[in-house]
Amino acid sequence: MTGNTRPIEASIRTDFRDEMDYGSYLGLDVLLSAQHPMSDPPHHDELLFIIQHQTTELWLKLVVHELLAVRRYLDADDLSRALKGLARVKHIQRTITEQWSVLATLTPSEYAEFRGSLGQSSGFQSHQYRAVEFLLGNKNAGMLQVFRDKPEVHAQLEQLLGEPTVYDAFLRLLARRGHEVPAGILDRDVTQAWTEHPELIAVFKTIYQDPHAYWELYEACEDLVDIEDAFQLWRFRHLRTVQRTIGFKTGTGGSSGASFLKRALDLTFFPELISVRTEIDGPLGA
């Protein structure tokens, strides 16, 4: 090595006329040309806004991929593989939550200069975000109308609306392992949003009171709570970023903006896993 130069090792391939290279494998010609600022002339900070949302959509694509696999593993009684998938989802959630700190560098005056170029586009219209919510239990058939002009997306969400959630799959696994999950819950209408079932608390109390006897199930319960907490933190960071950027203005897609996002903080996926904590007295035999 001379100075601050590192020579290319002789074994490193440099001729890709007949071979696939890094850019080809990742489709970088498509990926890196997918940013199209709409402001005229293009505002410097619009690229940040576009990339922030595009990268989030890529991570959401992976979350959907992983949650579908988690549900399959639960259906197949492969809890260990399901737990691995949930662990990966938690890491993705941490990443997309931290991304808000990058967008938060966009000041109100900077955003105002190109916000009008967004038209009616809004994160509310993210079908992948809606798919994640459907998979975790926040079903809402009314949301499908947002995607009625996109037949393939509408069909995907309609299918998820009619399928069991990850939580449904977990409860069915509990039942197969001998826990007394009420039949009415196992046979519920899965197109409806999950609402708290107090009769489930006794099932979870059994697991939490004796974690060593039910370690994998106990771990799965805590992983689900982690995912709920991380999702709420993501929502909160979204709310705070919106507030510091546009205050309480109406959202670009017609929502009430920050007020709409604040109401989302009341939504919950696995309420019984929180409620059971009130009932835990200590380990059995203590």
TrEMBL record:
InterPro entries reported for this sequence: Trp/Indoleamine_2_3_dOase-like (IPR037217), Trp_2-3-dOase_bac (IPR017485), Trp_2_3_dOase (IPR004981)
Keyword Transcription: no
Classification via Pfam families: Trp_dioxygenase
Binding, substrate: 49-53, 111, 115, 252
EC number(s) stated in the UniProt entry for this protein: 1.13.11.11
One annotated GO biological process: L-tryptophan catabolic process to kynurenine
Manner of cofactor binding, per the entry note: Binds 1 heme group per subunit.
Named cofactor requirement(s): heme
Catalytic reaction equation(s): L-tryptophan + O2 = N-formyl-L-kynurenine
GO MF, one annotated term: metal ion binding
Keyword Lyase: no
Pathway involvement of the protein, from the record: Amino-acid degradation; L-tryptophan degradation via kynurenine pathway; L-kynurenine from L-tryptophan: step 1/2
Group of enzyme by EC: oxidoreductase
Positions annotated to bind heme: 238
Top-level taxon of origin: Bacteria
Keywords: Dioxygenase, Heme, Iron, Metal-binding, Oxidoreductase, Tryptophan catabolism
Family note: Belongs to the tryptophan 2,3-dioxygenase family.
Subunit structure: Homotetramer.
Primary role: Heme-dependent dioxygenase that catalyzes the oxidative cleavage of the L-tryptophan (L-Trp) pyrrole ring and converts L-tryptophan to N-formyl-L-kynurenine. Catalyzes the oxidative cleavage of the indole moiety.
HAMAP family registered for this protein in UniProt: T23O
Name under which the protein is recorded: Tryptophan 2,3-dioxygenase
Organism of provenance: Promicromonospora soli
